[in-house]
Design a protein that fits this description.
The protein is an alpha/beta fold and about 350 residues long. It has helices spanning about 40-55, 75-90, 105-120, 130-135, 140-145, 150-170, 180-190, 195-200, 225-235, 250-265, 270-280, 305-315, 320-335, and strands at about 5, 10, 30, 35, 65-70, 95-100, 125-130, 175, 205, 215, 290-295, 300.
Length: about 350
């Protein structure tokens, strides 16, 4: 019976299939690697690639702290699960953060998935941040009152909170669950629109230009099909409904479909392209001017006042950056001493 089927990864029963690592019966077929894996060695294979990405791209060093943004979706749940297992070997401290956005059933299921992952984690400290406690309102109200595109506002708020937490905790990096298919889709879209300086933000590591600390993407060369297989095969709880405000551009849909079709005809095309892009990123242009510091809250800003303070000023009549930073500092004080 088919459990999951996708261009890059197929999970199904086959009486003749043997694991490439141990020879045991296998049900996970990686088309791009031309290999079968048993459940155990598929997990080890993904873990090893994530670990190699962290080391190869110098995402976090031994003794440092890594802040991990966990939405509760399949990608971030996979990332948290893998990081929990490899943290001792890497010698890094992992703090997983979930921001409760107040989006009805979507947020309820997301929080449930996060808490389930936390209950099983051995090497990850978990923090839940309630948006209403910080800003006095949840994301739907922020979006409605701001009259701006939902994803733009949501991204701005989440980035600010994660940055503030990273600074408070002294984390060296913030890890996100962006997988290769999405990153390559955005890279192609930006190339077509000739926004070349945006492409530098889509590599394995984005240095701290415009951010308090660098952003890292340990799933950089991991297929979306692999995270989908990972959570299903290992029975991990994850939110399987889309954000009610999700909006995908027509061009992104076309590019993603193109990549999927190309991968079907030429397995490993996407992963080869992603690794080539990572090698060539130094030749791409970077943002013209370095970021300033917000005169109100001290966080990185492209102007005199950061986007978060401008947004909250329009919503409440006062910039909430300083207040939010102070509240986060209070929340993190107990975590720093634990």
């Amino acid at each position: 019976m088919v459990v999951l089927e996708a261009p890059a990864v197929k999970v199904y029963e086959s009486p003749k299939a043997k694991c490439v690592k141990c020879g045991a019966p296998a049900r996970i077929r990686l088309s791009y690697a031309n290999a079968w894996f048993c459940d155990k060695h598929f997990k080890e294979y993904v873990k090893e690639r994530v670990k190699n990405n962290i080391i190869k791209y110098n995402m976090v060093k031994r003794g440092e702290m890594l802040l991990v943004a966990v939405s509760g979706g399949k990608d971030s749940v996979t990332l948290m699960n893998v990081l929990d297992e490899i943290a001792p070997e890497l010698g890094v401290n992992i703090v997983a953060v979930h921001i409760v956005l107040g989006m009805g059933e979507f947020s309820e299921k997301s929080l449930e998935a996060f808490r389930d992952s936390c209950s099983k984690a051995k090497n990850v400290k978990c923090v839940t941040v309630d948006l209403k406690e910080l800003l006095g309102m949840y994301m739907p109200e922020i979006i409605r009152r701001s009259r701006r595109p939902a994803c733009s506002v949501c991204g701005l708020v989440k980035r600010y909170i994660l940055n503030a937490m990273a600074v408070s905790l002294g984390a060296s990096s913030i890890a996100t669950g962006h997988h290769m298919n999405d990153l390559m889709t955005y890279a192609i879209k930006n190339f077509m629109e000739q926004k070349l300086d945006n492409i530098t933000k889509l590599g394995p590591v984005s240095e701290s230009e415009g951010s308090a600390v660098k952003r890292v993407r340990p799933l950089y060369d991991i297929y979306e099909d692999e995270t989908r297989a990972f959570v299903k095969v290992y029975g991990l709880n994850y939110v399987d409904i889309e954000c009610p405000f999700k909006s995908t551009s027509t061009l992104e849909v076309i590019i993603k479909d193109m990549l999927s079709r190309a991968e079907s005809e030429s397995p490993s095309l996407t992963i080869s392209a992603a690794r080539a892009l990572a090698r060539n990123l130094p030749s791409y242009p970077r943002p013209a001017s370095p970021p300033n510091r917000c005169r109100l809250c001290g966080m990185p800003s492209n102007g005199d006042v950061c986007g978060f303070c401008r947004l909250t000023m329009s919503l409440t009549g006062a910039p909430l950056g300083p207040e939010v930073r102070s509240r986060i500092e209070g929340m993190m004080s107990s975590l720093r001493t634990s």
